[in-house]
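Section 4.2 – Deliverable D4.2 (structural model, holo form)

The reporting period included a commitment to supply a predicted holo structure for the target in complex with guanosine-5'-monophosphate. Inputs used:
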Amino acid sequence: MSPISVKRRGIMFVLSSPSGAGKTTVAQEVLKQEKNLNISVSCTTRKARPSERDGIDYYFISENQYKEKVNEGEFLEHAEVFGNYYGTPKFVVEKYLDAGQDVIFDIDWQGTQQLAENARDDLVSIFILPPSIEVLEKRLIGRNQDTDEVVNRRMSKASDEMSHWPEYDYVIINENLEETIFDVRSILNAERLKRLRLKGLVSFVNKLRSKQ
Ligand code: 5GP
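Output (structure tokens):
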């Protein structure tokens, strides 16, 4: 029999949350555990944190470079978050999606809205909530990567950000990291199996039926 010709469109798999809810850790773990999944590395005008590497965590660019990329239409979506600019490079994401590979995005609600406007059918979005405000604050302080002022600014924005949960396909409360990772992977795998994402099913089934 000829090779199976049912293929699948790639999924844009978005994780959003207020900062400190654990989304980046979840994204990194899911990425390690799942095949066929790539991360979209964003551009940002924010300064790199000590642990961050250029080209791996972000592409760290100047405001001028950012503006140029916006004008050239190089971003799939872009937004200002906490006084810095962020954008998702279009080229790499399109390459993966065309090849039937999935892409995970760690972006905010503004970016998610833009992706939904342009490619709703390819988008699966998850909003991650912290179990409590105290835990959120502890995680923000505990990661020891931002100044007190930045932590305070992010805490005061958390309520605004959390108000966007109803715009997402799924909501997970991140009380236990292992369970959250399991839930995110379950969602990804169920979405991968959706009939509407499969291409070539009609001819595949016709071929099956013609052999009877
Ligand atoms: P951080 O500065 O802590 O890495 O990220 C701050 C916020 O910006 C997070 O909510 C993160 O998801 C969001 N973010 C990171 N990259 C992008 C991007 O390319 N586009 C948008 N819209 N948000 C982003």
